[in-house]
Amino acid sequence: AMAKPLKPVRFPDKFLWGAATSGHQTEGNNVNSDFWVAEHVKPTFFAEPSGDATNSLELWPRDLDLVKSLGLNSYRFGIEWSRIEPEPGQFSIAMLDHYKAMLEGFRARGLTSMVTFSHWTAPRWFAGRGGWDNPDAVQLFAQFSDRAARHVAPYMDYAVTLNEPNPLVGSFEPPRPERIRKLLDDTMAAAAKAVGSDRFAMANIGIKDADAYNRRLLEAHRAAKAAIKAARSTLPVGVTLAMPDDQEAGPNSV
To answer: What angle do CA 86, 223, 82 make, to 5 degrees?
Structure first.
């Protein structure tokens, strides 16, 4: 018997079909970020440095054209903190203008923008102060969010404070073998030395105290949301969540 033809599904008019990227994995040469430092020290936890990545810093118009050509109507990307605030309290108007131009590109193509303020990477100076373990971390992130939002929030459709804060704070991450844990610690020690600090903590790697980290991320979300809303009260602001569906492939599966 012939299979019945599938009924076309009608999605709501405002339903968003999109793709998502993170700045560090696509823009390339994110030299002021914590990840860039950790990728280039010896020993390093990373298999290879990110380098030019996919050169999205330059090729973003092509990215948006690809989104459009795939029949998608939205795209999530990140504004990179380490580019916007390369030194504490010093903000790059050139980079803020770059992201503003991108958002104008969304409007020109009729695409809905979702903008992530922190997609796990942070400036190298932030990591050298202890990352999210630093008691001042919330205030520092709020300060960045405030400055960025005042410049680019008028052009956004949706704002995302933190990318996937949920996998880091539960039992989502599998226990790592001892040699991997040691390599991770050695990488952080080498990175601390590279930035002239006695500590180095990256956003989502080597979390020591999950409860304290969880509380601080929650505070950071609230503070950043308030800063973004102060710049533009009508802008929807939230977080993105990781929704894993890991299933065992067989009886001896890991």
So the answer is: 15
Q: Which residues of 124-149 are buried (b: 16+ CB within 10 A; e: fewer)?
A: bbbbbbbbbbbeebbebbbbbbbbbb
pLDDT in tens, 60-116: 999 999 999 999 999 999 999 999 999 999 999 999 999 999 999 999 999 999 999
Q: What sign results for the dihedral spanned by CA atoms 186, 189, 193, 194?
A: positive
Residue 175, both tokens: 């226990």
Q: Which residues pair with 241 in a beta bridge?
A: none
Do strands 74-78 and 112-118 pair parallel, antiparallel, or not at all (unpaired)? parallel
User: Which residues does 103 contact at the CB level (< 8 Å), separation at least 6?
Assistant: 113, 115, 152, 155, 156
What contacts 193, CB < 8 A, 6 or more positions away?
A: 41
pTM of the model as a whole: 0.91
Closest C-alpha to 22, from 94, 170, 122, 157: 122
